Amino acid sequence: MSRRLLEAGHRVRAFDPDPAAAERAVARGAEGAESPRDAAAGADVVMLSLPGPEVVEEVVAGSEGVLAGLARRGVIVDMSTIDPATTRRLNTRAAEQGSFFLDAPVSGGVTKAASGELTIMVGGEAAALERCRPILASLGSNVVRVGPSGSGQIVKLCNNMLVAIIVAGLAETLVTAAKAGVDARTVTDVVRISAGGSWILDNHLPLTTFADDYTPRFSLDLLYKDVSLFSGMADGVGVPVPIAAGTEEVLKAARSRGLGALDQAVVVRMYEELAGVRVLPDEPPHASGT
Asked: Is 156 a catalytic residue?
């Protein structure tokens, strides 16, 4: 994302606790910062992309956090995927000091991030979004305000819950078809032009399962985190979600086999091992965690 912003002509001051990541940003033309507070000093807009709610809260509201350095009426744009309750709490903290907080999680993966074609679902003040829209347009081709604070996170968690259900469903069905004697490629060719088709089937499985490459484009660990956040959100509003609960258990089982750091589609591999069959039978079997 920093590369896209720099290429679009935006001035970027970058902080990352990983020195290698920070050095890569500086090598592309960003200015280095010593802390989130330092990165925010003098900035009109601060953008975050972090792994979870606890980290976001510390980076925003900690003693060396963004709010400690951000100018009045500055805008924090959080592109992480976290729970809406944390987002709303941070929105209140920002408002108390005269600043703005937008939740702006993204969908599209590494490929769309590199090409600037992400979908960005934004929750928060409409006026604050309009101030940031030229910056967000450097990153995404679809920038959509979906409601007040927390709404972007709600939409993103719903999206990723559906992704998890589809990934688990594809793993079950493709391995079952293979065990029953039908080539998985034949199944996918037919399903793709039928009612069971999906973006994951068309765009993700060809790069992962059918290429026998589980290099993480979006890791199973991250998907599990998002499913857990969805389940917590549903529980908080009193909605029973048995399909989500079942899917969460599938992902948990795959992680327990040492597959968490691999791509989310590696769930297929777990089913292959359980069923004793390969989706692509002409390829040799793999050990867990490889």
From this structure: yes
